[in-house]
Write a structure and sequence with these properties.
The protein is an alpha/beta fold. The chain contains 14 helices and 14 strands. The protein has a six-stranded parallel β-sheet, with helices on both faces. Strands 8-7-9-10-14-13 form a six-stranded parallel β-sheet, with helices on both faces. It binds thiamine diphosphate.
């Protein structure tokens, strides 16, 4: 185990002080350290997606000749393949970048189904990309050696190098994990109100992380079957696109997308596609807790976006910002009568049940019953 401060001291010693990426629970403490020290000891930019992080580091290199660090969960590696092969690769612009990849789905360890394949093939992918890597263990001297090795390689070859981080390697003690309570609603409360309201033949698509887990648990609590919901456990940011496609095919049914601000921002361009295609039966709900709560509460850029105006400017027919339970109830009252696509942004606090579970029924089984439900009418 190494603390974030110890790790940062090593990075700093070898002139790595520029960080950007999308959070991963594998190194939640490290992310907290970066957030707290941004603008003081270091620079940390949490952008929309991992692809963007690679390009941000490329720009940093072009202007400073220094190497930036991109942190990500290995699911984000998929998103970086394009800029790694077509921008940073030695056959193109030969730009070094240090990747710090959280190893979800490590073979032999229990993890959720969406992590299994990437967990198995991550090393193979890196081999194919000709990106050398070191798997860090918890020994500080060993970690220093790997950082030196990475730096030497990147300077000599002007090419990317990866550090693989297993769960539990970076850990801090005595962290104040107090969650700020800013808004009246929690995501769980808002979600329950919404689910109770859509009690007919609606179709629900829920996004990656705790939103899907909370929806699944609520259905269990209600002793309701899960057929109405598509629980999108992986492919962060894609829930709205799935919903769009279904809404265009099933014009007589309401399609509700339950999104998170982090996921929404990751694929914000989908807003333009939805607005352009303009399905009247689509209701897009973003639970905006201004954070990636599922991976430890790291901030998103949602505070500086006016999602309501953005949606309207992308041709959504209606959008509302919801700050309270009363607002939510009022909006829900008339939501079914309104013409879509429409957007509700529900401001919620961070926080969820400690023992929040994950879907227990197999994903294939869930998909099959959902597909049958789509064809029930
Ligand atoms: C491509 C990709 N990058 C990173 C992750 C890790 N990840 C899972 S959930 C999540 C946060 C989602 O945040 P948000 O949509 O705001 O929902 P919240 O957790 O706040 O409810 C992240 C970063 C992932 N699953 N996929």
């Amino acid at each position: 185990m190494i603390s974030s401060t110890e790790l940062f001291n090593l990075f700093q010693k070898y002139d790595f002080t520029f960080f950007t990426g999308i959070p991963d629970s594998t190194f939640a403490d490290w992310m907290r350290f970066l957030t707290e020290n941004t603008g003081k000891l270091l620079t940390n930019i949490i952008p929309c997606n991992e692809c963007e992080s690679i390009a941000i580091c490329a720009g940093y290199y072009l202007i400073t000749r220094k190497i930036g660090v991109v942190y990500m969960q290995n699911s984000g590696l998929g998103k970086t393949i394009n800029p790694l092969t077509s921008l940073c690769d030695p056959e193109v612009y030969s730009i070094p970048v240090l990747l710090m990849i959280g190893w979800r789905g490590e073979p032999g360890k229990i993890d959720a189904p969406q992590h299994k394949k990437m967990g198995r093939i991550m090393n193979l992918l890196l081999n194919d990309l000709k990106i050398p890597y070191s798997i860090l263990n918890s020994d500080i001297d060993e970690i220093e050696k790997e950082i030196i090795k990475a730096k030497d390689y990147m300077e000599k070859n002007r090419a990317p190098y990866a550090l693989i981080i297993k769960k539990g390697i970076i850990k801090d003690n005595n962290i104040d994990k107090k969650i700020p309570l800013i808004y009246e609603l929690t995501r769980e409360n808002a979600l329950k109100l919404i689910v109770n309201y859509f009690n007919q033949d609606e179709i629900i698509i829920s996004t990656t992380g705790k939103i899907t887990r909370e929806l699944y648990e609520y259905r269990e609590e209600l002793k309701e079957i899960h057929k109405k919901d598509f629980y999108m456990v992986g492919s962060m940011g894609c829930a709205a696109s799935i919903g769009l496609s279904i809404a265009l095919q099933k014009k007589d049914r309401k399609v509700i997308i339950l999104d998170g601000d982090g996921a929404f921002i990751m694929q914000m361009g989908t807003l333009a596609t939805i607005g352009h295609e303009s399905p009247t039966n689509l209701i897009h709900i973003v639970f905006d807790n201004e954070s990636h709560e599922s991976t430890g509460g790291q901030p998103t850029v949602s505070k500086s976006i006016d999602i309501k105006e953005l949606a309207l400017n992308c041709n959504y027919k209606y959008a509302a910002l919801i700050m309270s339970k009363k607002d939510l109830k009022n909006e829900l009252k008339c939501v079914k009568e309104r013409e879509g696509p429409l957007m509700l942004i529900v401001k919620v606090n961070q926080g969820s049940k400690k023992d929040l579970g994950r879907p227990k029924i197999s994903l294939i089984e869930l998909k099959n019953s959902f597909m049958n439900y789509l064809n029930e009418k």
